[in-house]
Fold:
Amino acid sequence: MGKKVGIEVSIAAAEAVGLCDVDVVAAYPITPQTHIVEHLSELVANGRLDAEFVPVESEHSAMSVCCGSAAAGARTFTSTAAQGLALMAEIVYIAASMRLPILMLVANRALSAPLSIWNDHSDAMMVRDSGWIQIFCENGQDVYDHIFHAYRVGEDPRVSLPVMVNMDGFILTHVIEPVEFWTKEMVGSYLPRFRPLNTLHPDKVVTMGAFGMPEIYAEQKMAHDQALKNSMPVLLEGWDELAKLTGRKYEPVELYRTEGAETLLLAMGSLCETASLAVDQMREAGRKVGLVKLRLWRPFPLAEVRKALSGAKDLVVLDRSISVGAANAPVTSEISAAMYHEPQRPRIHCMIAGIGGRDVTPEDITNMVDLSLKGTEQECHIYGVRG
Amino acid sequence: MPEESKKKILKPLKNFPLEEHIASGHRACQGCAEVLAVRHVLKAIGPEMVLAMATGCMEIISSPYPLTSWNVPWIHVAFENAAAVGSGVEAGLKALRRKGRVPDKEVTVVAMGGDGGTSDIGFQALSGMFERGHKMIYVCVDNEAYMNTGIQRSSSTPFGASTTTSPAGKMSPSGQNTSKKDMPGIAAAHNIPYVATACPSYYSDLMKKVAKAKEADGPAYLHILSVCPTGWRIPPEKAIEYGQLAVDTGIFPLYEVDHGVWKMSRKPKQLKPVADYLKGQGRYRHLDETLIAVIQKGVDEKWERLLKMTEMTGPATSEQPAQEE
Ligand SMILES: Cc1ncc(C[n+]2csc(CCOP(=O)(O)OP(=O)(O)O)c2C)c(N)n1
Ligand code: SF4
Ligand SMILES: [Mg+2]
Structure:
């Protein structure tokens, strides 16, 4: 077992990437991602990591370099946030459809305008349909562990897909947390060498990125959809092995004090920690409230979500992004669709909270539960907004 | 085409590799000199290569899934990022080779894009690739417009050409009213080891330059004028002839910049009048004498500038190529 240290989560994440012996890092600086790539370039400069650090001139090129490097068979890393993710979005889609396993750490940040460097999930939601595996992390240890998990799953020949590990900007990137490090031996036993089926090399000639006529496009999209859905057992296997190694057990959907709960909260990312404090307080006050943490966003864990939610009377979804003009915010929409055909389903309330870095306290969460229980189903509120 | 020049073109070349790396049966238009340029570039590099290609004619004519024309490892990702994708391939192979995870041999990485993919939308990615010093070749196949999407103007479309987005009209007598972006000059300004212009009508010159680019100790840039009969509105059988005329009139001079030293590759004693080149091309049909004179003046000035560059940067004049007839 590795040692436990107090460390800034960005630095810990970069150390984890270094332990994975990545071959190529291509990134462009953007707050709050900067510390991650700064530290990686330091690791390369000091000779602690034998990799090519490609200091690209934009995020669009970052993801393009990643495509080229992953296609060449190199273990590849990038990281970005908000505007950077928006700029690279075109290639984010292509990386997934071309089945190129790349690890991208997203330091979640609000999309402009107005320009905001602060946290929410609008960046990740923007590329929700791109076909990446998307995981949301609750704390620093979670981020650190998921670097290894992401490479193991994404590069698995049964999966061969890029993985986006989401960590809340500032709330996670810039805080010092206790993180239990992995040893080289642990990484060696957990993470096999990247051995893709096809690579760009003259010894075996392949064509990658051919265009699709109408006769084939839909079939290719279906194949991608199936591949993403079929990554589920490999994700679970990765989490099982990780638990054996570290004692920490991650799951697509995690439950916190949900026994006998009439009202459930659902949250993603670091908000889960705040929400669990709120649940503790409400439980102490005798209220039957529990928390469902949605760790895996893509592939969407449909069965697990249904199982976790169907027993409750009310469900309050804490949505950390807004889909302007839509009936609901992204997570609520998805959850509502998932529950629609269930014989027993909760009333679903949408609470858009914490966008653009607005602080959310445990008291706010209790308030949101109260507001929701007073209202009717499917109402979508932006919590705490000044009119 | 005059009988005489036909003979010259068909004369078999010594050291002309017979191996083909782009298969026939692709979907390029008849007389497409862009795909001819690609064919020659690949021949000169040989099979030990990886090719990253931008969206555009060359990608579309060669890769309708599940078919492919490519006998070399080939990747297409998007329109504006061939230079970045190629950078990634180069970086990936470099790291893997250093770590002993791919065979220890030299693989030439080539990125290729059209004039749109190079001088417009891919400009930034290209500049990044140059500046970072990746050891690879970037080839711009310049047919002077966005041909794949239907002959729209690019910044590489020359002054006076009518395209579907720079049409000649009453208010726009010249059609394109801006002059061609100087991509080789911009590439050279990055101080990369090797920059050259070429044209498949002069294929031995082209292939020699590709060989030099392959040996360069850093990024190399090749700008290849690629006659497009469809977009230029000329008969397909005239493609080679128009390429020659572009060079011989000085519209598209052949030169190289080798470690900062500018050198003409063809220096005719007397340039042919540009009118010889413009006439017969549908895209220039609207030009009158005045506009032709404007173009002639621009060509003369550019030619003079180029000669000055060769004098300023080059070795003693005796080492410059002898003047040709
Ligand atoms: C981001 C983006 N914008 C626009 C297009 C549409 N598009 C595809 S190819 C092309 C023109 C290609 O022109 P050029 O690079 O000169 O190559 P050519 O086809 O002339 O060889 C355009 C505009 C695209 N594929 N992607
Ligand atoms: S449009 Fe022009 S460049 Fe494109 S394939 Fe046809 S001839 Fe070649
Ligand atoms: Mg073009």
Notes: Chain A has two domains: 4-245, 254-382.
